[in-house]
Amino acid sequence: MFGKNRNVDEPPVQIVPWTDVWEFAITDEERPANAQRKRPVLGVRAFRVPQGARERRVNAPCAFFPPQFPASSTSSAEATARRLYEDPEGRTLLCAVDEPQDASGERHYGVRDGQGNTIGTIRRIAPLKHALKPTWRIDQPGHPEIVSSAEWAKGGPKEMVQRGAGKLLLGVVQAVADMGAEGGDQPTKTRVLEWRADDELVLTSDGDRRFLVRAAWLDRRLLFAYALLRTG
Fold first, then answer.
1. What are the CA-CA distances from residue 120 to residues 71, 136, 163, 177, 193 (Å)?
2. Choosing a second label site near 89 at 20 to 30 A (CA), which of 17, 47, 75, 157?
3. What string of DSSP letters covers 24-80?
4. Which residue from 148, 145, 130, 154 is spatially nearest to 206, judged by alpha carbons?
5. Which residues pair with 96 in a beta bridge?
6. Cα 165 from Cα 161, distance rounded (Å)
7. C-beta pairs of 76-82 under 8 Å, 24+ apart in sequence
8. 37-60: per-residue pLDDT in tens?
9. Cα dihedral sign for 75, 81, 86, 87?
């Protein structure tokens, strides 16, 4: 359905409900290369969830970028770019990011659901000189603010595990590396980042494109909005 070079004997990859997402990546890879397929099958660039194993592995879409169509003005084009949809045609709005608002040196991006209700805020905080502090935070009503770790481990994911950054980080690295390893939008270097609400680990991310949710209460739409802002 969505693939650009899908084999006719392969069934279409079905859309995954965004509420069921625990792991996702921004990629155009729909089906990874395998023993029967030398090249990956590409589809539209979307937020995708890895499903299945080995020869049956697929990256199912769960959220879509705006369809490409002419905008009436620059402002309307920018507003459209800050939206995500539940379908590739752009008929059902999933979430939208408001115009940024400056507040005490921070830049706030309100996030709204498909009905226009505010569901949270993405905050960008300018880093201080010589200070290793988080530059992005996620506010979800009813929960402590979500803060990203401020420093990458010099020795990579293994050192982060040894330093107590998380028992499952090596598994996270492998999981996100498997998604798109044979093509698509796979990044060249893996960097693992933790996100916490107080002492609770709620999210692990690899760069700005691959995410593993750790807390059931975390609104996936806020993560989608953050990734949208970071990747453009």
1. 27, 14, 32, 29, 21
2. 75
3. EEEEEEEE---SS-SSPEEEEEEEEEEES-GGG-EEEEEEEPPP----SSHHHHHHH
4. 148
5. 83, 112
6. 5
7. 81/232, 82/228, 82/229
8. 788 899 999 999 999 877 788 999
9. positive
Report the amino acid identity of residue 149.
Answer: S
If you average pLDDT over residues 6-24, what whole number do you get? 83
Two tokens at 165?
A: 């950054």
Instruction: Give how far Cα 104 sits from Cα of 101, 108, 124, 136, 164, Å.
Output: 10, 10, 11, 15, 34
Q: Length of the chain, please? A: 232
Give the sign of the dihedral formed by CA 176, CA 177, CA 181, CA 185: positive
Residue 133 has pLDDT above 80, yes or no: no
Q: Which helix (H) or strand (E) holds 226?
A: helix 220-231
Q: How many whole angstroms separate alpha carbon 168 and alpha carbon 217?
A: 20
Amino acid type, 101: Q
**Beta-bridge partners for 60:** 49
